[in-house]
Design goal:
There is one protein chain. By secondary structure, the chain is an alpha/beta fold. Helix content is 47%, strand content 16%. The chain has helices spanning 8-26, 34-41, 45-53, 67-78, 93-101, 137-144, 155-167, 181-184, 195-219; strands spanning 31-32, 65-66, 84-89, 109-116, 125-126, 129-133, 148-151, 172-175, 189-192. Helix 5 (93-101) links the parallel strand 3 (84-89) and strand 4. Helix 1 (8-26) packs across helix 4 (67-78) and helix 2 crosses helix 3 (45-53). The longest helix is centred in the last third of the chain and has 25 residues, at 195-219.
Length: 226
């Protein structure tokens, strides 16, 4: 199967497989069947086999999956064994937190530069990287050729910044700005992160769960004679 024919839902499950297989290795589990994996991950065995078959399949009949090998193959599919250069735009609270708490090297990227339009932040060091003013972007990109940018700036300034970055060779964005990059630039890769969307989804799930629990309790029949 061609990779561009693989559904987005399958691709979005791959990081979960990778993370979970890492947990199995930490428990010294070396092999696992699709049935056992399905029980632990709360997916059907058929779903797991279908997902992995999109990339050729990795299990053996009667043996199951070699956990370390499968994790390594999924990591390769996700590009985690590469070290592409990336830059971060916006050294405010969110940008600093991302820089400090995410080990980009584990996920296939080298964070090579941090930029902000606030001149007072220039020279401040975060995780060993000094913040540069955004007026140095062109020079830096020409010398270092990053291909991916983390966008941690307000929506109001995002459109102009994206135009600039694409002109400097950026081909992918981890986008926290709430600006819809794909609307104007469908040719670049974008992963949008809306933290409030996640919170609203949780809000719905929590309230829906409470309502179902209340309905189930109300539906319980009374026991005669009590």
């Amino acid at each position: 199967m061609q990779k561009n024919n693989i559904s987005n839902s399958v691709i979005r499950r791959l990081p979960r497989y990778y993370r979970f297989l890492g947990e199995l290795l930490n428990q010294d589990i070396q092999k696992i069947s699709s049935r056992e994996l399905s029980e632990k991950m709360r997916l059907t065995a058929s779903q797991i086999r279908q997902d992995l078959n999109c990339f050729g399949g990795f299990g053996q009949q009667g043996y199951g999956y070699n956990v370390a090998e499968l994790r390594r193959e999924i990591g390769h599919i996700l590009g985690l064994d590469k070290q592409d250069k990336m830059i971060l735009i916006g050294a405010g609270n969110l940008g600093r937190a991302i820089t400090v708490h995410i080990d980009f090297a584990k996920y296939g990227y080298e964070l090579s530069g941090i930029f902000d339009s606030n001149i007072s932040l220039e020279g401040i060091e975060i995780s060993g990287i000094k913040i540069m003013h955004t007026n140095r972007l062109a020079e830096f990109c020409a010398e270092n050729t990053p291909t991916m940018a983390v966008l941690c700036i307000p929506k109001s300034g995002a459109k102009e910044m994206v135009e600039t970055l694409i002109g400097l060779g950026i081909k992918a964005f981890w986008n926290f700005s709430h600006y819809d990059i794909h609307y104007d630039h469908p040719e670049v890769a974008v992963e949008n992160v809306h933290l409030t969307d996640s919170l609203m989804t949780l809000s719905y799930a929590a309230r829906n769960q409470h309502e179902h629990s209340a309905e189930d309790a109300a539906a319980e029949p009374e026991i005669a004679g009590e």
